[in-house]
């Protein structure tokens, strides 16, 4: 049986027994990028989603950029495994916004 809560630390990781805020077990390392941001679109369950991949930024900066891109598109979205997902077909707008910020951008897919 493993410890999952401590009065000193709060919720703890069952693997390393560190507080969840300090746990490194479940965190994946960011993928190594080639310096090119790829923007594409996918259809999921009949709905279109724009994807931004290849950004090698710290977690906080990536979350802030995702928030900024969602606001620029006027749409919702999320950040999953270093991929920014924006609801709707906003590929061109995302590419323009990223280019203005100085990123090297390519359109991926068809």
Automatic annotation (TrEMBL):
InterPro entries: DENR/SUI1_TIF, SUI1, SUI1_arc_bac, SUI1_dom_sf. Keywords: Initiation factor, Protein biosynthesis, Translation regulation. One of its GO terms (molecular function) is translation initiation factor activity. Residues 36-102 form the SUI1 domain. Pfam families: SUI1. The keyword tRNA processing does not apply. Coiled coil: none annotated. SUPFAM superfamilies: eIF1-like (SSF55159). Belongs to the SUI1 family. PANTHER family: DENSITY-REGULATED PROTEIN, DENSITY-REGULATED PROTEIN HOMOLOG. This is Translation initiation factor Sui1.
């Amino acid at each position: 049986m493993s410890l999952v809560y401590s009065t000193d630390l709060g919720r703890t990781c069952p693997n390393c027994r560190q507080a969840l805020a300090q746990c490194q077990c479940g965190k994946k390392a960011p993928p190594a990028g080639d310096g090119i941001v790829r923007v594409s679109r996918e259809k999921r369950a009949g709905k279109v989603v724009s994807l931004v991949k290849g950004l090698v930024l710290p977690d906080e900066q990536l979350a802030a950029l995702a928030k900024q891109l969602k606001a620029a598109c006027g749409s919702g979205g999320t950040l999953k495994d270093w991929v920014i997902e924006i609801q709707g077909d906003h590929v061109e707008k995302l590419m323009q916004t990223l280019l203005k910020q100085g990123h090297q951008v390519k359109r991926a897919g068809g």
